[in-house]
Amino acid sequence: MAQERVFGFGLIGAGAISTMHATVIECLPDARLVGVTALPYEAALEFAQARGARAYRTVDELLTDPEIDVVAIGTPSGLHPDQAVVCARAGKHVLCEKPLAITLEGADRAIHAAEEAGVKLAVVSQRRFDPPCVAVHRAIEEGVFGRIVLVNGIVRYFREPSYYTNSNWRGTWALDGGGALINQGIHMVDMVRWFGGDISTVSGFARTLSHSIEVEDTASATLEFASGALGVIQSTTAAAPGLYLTVEVLGDRGSAVIQDSEVVYWNTLDGGGPPELEGPKTGSGTRDPMAFSHTGHLSQFRDLLDAIIEDRPPRVDGWEGRKTLEVVLAVYESSRTGAPVRLPLS
Asked: Could you please report the per-residue DSSP string of 260-325?
């Protein structure tokens, strides 16, 4: 019997999200953590020693390790594309935290580098693996709700001022790429786009209403989908004390509403209710940024490894990450100009 391949992982970053990445790797029988690099090096060293892994002083040093097959990027958003590019060029598969980049140019560089190197590139969007979201998406595809007329996604988060002041990158254009929309709300943008399909027109507002930061803490946008359906995206980090995520799918034969990771409404004209949902749910970080389960990440890491084994695209590849980023940037552009923005942007 052939021995199962074990994938060696390298981590770029040693913060909270990389801690979750390490937890996920421990849960996968065909994966192991080889090493980590971070700044300062002492952080990488402490992280690695606690997990029996190696610490590297630089990304380049990590990438020379032949035991590393996959690199998970958990650094500030503005660093993602450059790091994804060098990983791909070194022949490593890449799992990049959202967003893939903070500009379309950056996203394109990462995507093309992966394609040219023949490696897989996945962008974290763990809610696509949440059982309630999977069930709603399947129902849409099967026509359970009839013609979809509205798809809405709302993020009602709260972040204390220290969330921004204790960080040298959060709430900055250079490294965060924006605020409540590109950081927290991007998951709902992705869900709305996944459920409703391609978005053709965006009209939005991005405002700084509560925090002392250079980017928005509150954003709201109306959407028109290529299908003719309409929708709304809203995201804030100023909704005390922190409420819940909501995704609504409304059709002319039925509707469903998800709050956090629970289906709170599902009904159709034929009386059909929600299916039995199997598997753990992701939860939400309404007030604490890390107050969500690792199960969604676990499913996405598993999907990436399966994509490598089966030589297929990951379920959320670079192109999918780019499409979601494009909607976020369209909201910012509409807010800046005061005019609707047509998609695609380029």
From this structure: TTEEEEEEETT---PPPP-S---B--SSSTT-B-SHHHHHHHHHHHHHHHHT---SSBHHHHHHHH
Structure tokens at 255: 């509707």
Spatial distance between the Cα atoms of 288 and 125, rounded to a whole number of angstroms: 18
Is there a contact between 108 and 329 (Cβ–Cβ < 8 Å)?
Answer: no
The 245-251 sheet, strands edge to edge: 262-268, 254-259, 245-251, 148-156, 230-236, 218-225, 199-207, 341-342
pLDDT tens-digit readout, 1-54 = 445 899 999 999 999 999 999 999 999 999 999 999 999 999 999 999 999 999
- Give the CA distances from residue 92 to residues 8, 58, 265, 272, in Å, rounded to whole numbers and listed in that order: 10, 16, 43, 46
Spatial separation of the C-alpha atoms in residues 46 and 296, rounded to whole Å: 26
Q: Give the separation between CA 126 and CA 282, rounded to whole angstroms.
A: 8
Q: CB–CB of 153/247 below 8 Å?
A: yes
Burial (CB count <10 Å: 0-12, 13-18, 19+), residue 231: buried
According to the model, what pLDDT value does residue 291 have?
A: 47
The DSSP call for residue 245 is: E
| In the chain, domain spans | 7-126, 127-287+318-342
- In the predicted model, is pLDDT for residue 109 greater than 70? yes
Could you tell me the pLDDT band of residue 271, with boundaries at 50, 70 and 90? Answer: confident
Q: What per-residue confidence (pLDDT) applies to 281?
A: 54
Instruction: Assign domain 7-126 to a CATH class.
Output: alpha beta
Q: With 60 as the cut, is the pLDDT of residue 126 above it?
A: yes
Q: Would you say the CATH fold of 127-287+318-342 matches that of 7-126?
A: no
Assigned fold of 127-287+318-342: Dihydrodipicolinate Reductase; domain 2 (3.30.360)
Task: Express each pLDDT in 280-304 by its tens digit.
Answer: 555 555 555 544 578 999 999 999 9
Query: Of the candidates 130, 94, 37, which has an alpha carbon nearest to the alpha carbon of residue 305?
Result: 94
Q: What is the enclosing helix (H) or strand (E) of 330?
A: helix 318-337
Instruction: Measure the CA–CA gap between 134 and 127, rounded to whole angstroms.
Output: 9
The pLDDT value given to residue 283 = 56
Rounded to 10 degrees, the C-alpha dihedral 315/110/63/11 comes to -50
